[in-house]
Amino acid sequence: MPAPRPLCLAVVGVIAPWVVACNDGPQPRAGSAAPAAPAAPSTRPTAPAPAPLTTVRDPLGQVVAEVRLDGDGARCGVRVDQVALEVVRDGAATTASPGTAGAALRLEPGPAGDVITSDGARSARIYRDPARPGHVDILDNDGVAMVRIAIDGDGATLVDASRAAVARARKDGGRIVVDDPDGRALAYVSGDDLEVAALLVASAVPPDLRGLAACDRLLTPAVPPAGTP
How does the average pLDDT of the chain come out, rounded? Predict the structure, then answer.
């Protein structure tokens, strides 16, 4: 005598149009394959976003600038105020696009410093005096200093075209504190790179130029150019 078939119960209800319960599970239809087992959830961890390498906060704690490098240091993402750039090395040059108003920026070594062009037109120059290590000037297209940075030990002084001090950056317990000439805090910068901190907080320099200069500093070692400003 053949064994009895498993008992299946079909229930017709109001909420569900039909429900089938069977003590050995649903049977595949004739001529069809059995339902595939659900895929196991992926155990591969999601790669986290790279942490900011350098973050600038105002006295209220708001992030006003940040710089990130990708895993191999070949690309730099930077935001200064509301301007965001992606910066890469292009041979001997450093390029960023988009810049302010969508302009493509390019920084190239020249006989009198690193020349910055915006959509092909010269807009600024970065000069590092080989006779004065730690001195960095950002000059406009007419050669007038937008900021001069002088690094000395654990501090850096920012001065304007008239050589009046506008800010002082100093290392303080694993971060950099930027004060105005009266000692009031202007910004707090993570890390210990005084040049990057000074470049990011130099408010007289347009944000896109600050971002480009900071990324160029991090992507490649600074090489003092020949010539004078």
Answer: 80
Write down the pLDDT at residue 103. Answer: 81
Decide if pLDDT at 98 tops 80.
Answer: no
3-state SS string for 92-151: CEEEECCCHHHCCEEEEEECCEEEEEECCEEEEEEEECCCCCCEEEEEECCCCEEEEEEE
Give the residue carrying structure tokens 């920084």: 107
Query: CA-CA distance, 154 to 177, in Å (whole number)?
Result: 11
Reported as a single tens digit per residue, the pLDDT across 7-20 is 333 333 333 333 33
Q: What is the DSSP string of 56-103?
A: EE-TTS-EEEEEEE-TTSSEEEEEETTEEEEEEEETTEEEESS-GGGP
- Average pLDDT (180-200) is 96
- The CB-side HSE value for 148 (13 A sphere, CA atoms) comes to 16
Give domain limits for the chain. 54-219
Among candidates 54, 71, 72, which has minimal Cα distance to 63? 54
> 């119960």: which residue's tokens?
9
Structure tokens at 115: 């020349």
